[in-house]
Amino acid sequence: MKYIIRLSSYARKSSLLKMEAPKMSKVCYSSFMHNKAYINGQFVTAASGKTFEVRNPANRDLLGCTPDMDVSDAQVAIDAAYDAFQTWQNTTAKERALVLRKWFELCEKYKEDLAMIITKESGKPLAESIGEMTYGSSFIELYAEEGKRVNGEVVQSPSPSKEMIFIRKPIGVAAMITPWNFPNAMITRKAAAAMAAGCTCVVKPAEDTPYSAIALADLSQQAGIPSGVFNVVTSSKANAADIGTLLCTSPKVAGLSFTGSTAVGKLLYKQCSEGIKRIGLELGGNAPFIVFDSADLSKAVNGLMAAKFRNTGQTCISANRILVQSKIYDKFVELVKETMQKQIVVGDGAEKGVTFGPLINESQLHKVENLVKSSLDSGAKLLLGGKRHEKGGLYYEPTIIEDCAEHTPCFAEEIFGPVVCLRKFESEEEALAIANSTNSGLAGYFFSENLSQVWRVAHKLETGMVGINDGMISAAEGCFGGIKESGIGREGSHHGMDEYTYFKYLCFGGLN
Ligand code: NAP
Q1: 28 CB-near residues (< 8 Å, 6+ apart)
Q2: pLDDT tens track for 117-156
């Protein structure tokens, strides 16, 4: 009885849920897909007139061509944001909350349309894209309110003739570089916090997914967010590095917030050091997912399905190394295999019933393919899948491999794909030693019904976030971020605003 997977409760929570095609609003999603960037309140082309193609990863259909901006365009956006900051910083938190709230309401109103854009450009199943919209918009809703609680402090002065106060100020222009895997939420998580604090933004979205950013710009304009407060600079991969360097080094930019790979994060960190910029980094993970003997196996399997297969395994907090205690190992593996075969429906995310889309691009497909191949060459055993899907294109089969060791490539590296990599362990100490033997420290998960073990392991896992008997930890109210080489700073929760403010110490002297 204990082993029966509670599909219905999972389905309610899960992103793998099969759902009816949502009703679109009267406005068609494509009306938000401008082939323009957005600078200083205007939809604009690149000064060079160049564009780059954006294709649907599900079928490689051309979605459109967006401006391939370079540093000269990015400089215009920085100037606009810098000028807008001079007035935006003087608005009250309540005034900012009103327009942010309006932005949130418009994102909710057009949720299905913007979700369809996410699906078209990222390949994500529509149900998951709607989930991303709900998640993404919830940051705008949260920070519209949190902005009103950015308070200072009055402290006890050591001298009778002085009073000491700390006030919090917005840092200025905040630059943001975001990835393709959450093309809406990775922008709102940063921009809403920054704007609520009184900062202005220059956003550079990923080459694969510019349209979600442009759609957000459209709704920001409709919401009445003043010109120059929210800017989107689109570019191809060819211009990303130069634009990144400008954003990190421009004296008009006060801070950079980046979500993406650890390799690029390290480069940007170095570049920001020159001007001592504020920096927030949300980088790659290599999440351990530990199932102890005492675990409720249905919770653990459901947790794994959510933490492994959401967005076809392409999330930074995806379960990467699955460690299962020996007594329950065989049963757990059997249940995972059975559940995968029952629940996963591969296809174009815009089609009804699909729960598993393609990988984002060729390079991601090659990466996953090579990681699996080299893992099998180095001694891991294949239990399921292990090759490109018969649908062709960018589809890869849901895969299970076992007997992974620490040096197995799929264990040593973040896979960013739909591969369950298993390893059997005997003791809690052994599981923790394996889990912590990495330079990444973003998320970790474990399943145990033993209360003492729950507390011990929660304290000892070396990650910034821990899912305990839960595979879905993301929420605007949660404090998201990593330790070790997985990042600096936190996004979400009230701490997500810390990155965009600084304390100014006011000392009132000569008082009678
Ligand atoms: P990526 O290559 O680092 O790209 C992320 C962003 O950086 C894109 O906008 C990209 O633009 C831009 N970029 C690339 N090279 C750059 C450079 N030299 N200078 C400035 N910008 C540059 O990462 P990805 O492969 O797209 O995303 C996957 C990685 O992101 C994974 O490692 C994942 O774990 C991590 N991630 C982390 C979180 C988190 O919250 N911790 C969330 C999501 C993803 P182009 O697209 O034009 O190249």
Answers
A1: 113
A2: 999 999 999 999 999 999 999 999 999 999 999 999 999 9
CA atoms within 13 A on the CB side of 115: 24
Residue pair 257/235 in contact by the 8 Å Cβ criterion = no
- 488 in contact with ligand 1, CB cutoff 6 A: no
Residues annotated as catalytic (active site), given as ranges? 282, 316
CB 285 within 8 A of CB 482: yes
* Tokens of residue 501, six digits: 């403010």
Residue that wins the pLDDT comparison between 5 and 163 = 163
Integer CA distances (angstroms), 493 to 143, 147, 406, 446, in order: 8, 11, 34, 23
Domains and CATH numbers, the chain: 38-55+62-283+488-502 (3.40.605.10), 287-474 (3.40.309.10)
Query: Atom of ligand 1 at shortest distance to CA of 208?
Result: 46
Return d(Cα 347, Cα 355) in angstroms, integer: 8
For ligand 1, atom 25, name the residue with the nearest CA.
Answer: 261
Contact 179 CB / ligand 1 (< 6 Å): yes
Would you state the pLDDT for residue 25?
61
Helix%, strand%, coil% for the chain, nearest 5: 40, 20, 35
Q: Average the pLDDT over each of 20-24, 285-289, 336-340, 420-424 and give the range with the smallest value.
A: 20-24
Q: Which of the 8 DSSP states describes residue 293?
A: T
| pLDDT tens per residue, range 305-353 | 999 999 999 999 999 999 999 999 999 999 999 999 999 999 999 999 9
Distance CA 360, CA 312 (A): 9
The phi, psi pair for 169, rounded to 5°, reads -120, 150
Atom 48, ligand 1: which residue's CA is nearest? Answer: 237
If one residue of 209, 258, 264 were mutated to test the ligand 1 pocket, choosing by the most ligand atoms within 8 A of its CB, it would be 264
pTM exceeds 0.90: yes
Check if 467 has its Cβ closer than 6 Å to any atom of ligand 1. no
Q: Which of helix, strand or coil describes residue 491?
A: strand
Q: Report the nearest-CA residue for atom 40 of ligand 1.
A: 282
Pairwise CA distance, residues 423 & 329, whole Å: 9
CA–CA separation, 55 and 48 (whole Å): 22
Nearest to 507 by CA among 169, 154, 168: 154
DSSP state of 167: E
Residue the block writes with tokens 């061509």: 65
Cα 191 from Cα 139, distance rounded (Å): 9
- What's the rounded Cα separation, in Å, for the pair 67 and 436? 43
* H or E element in which residue 70 lies: none
Which of 37, 49, 48 has the alpha carbon at shortest distance from 77?
Answer: 37
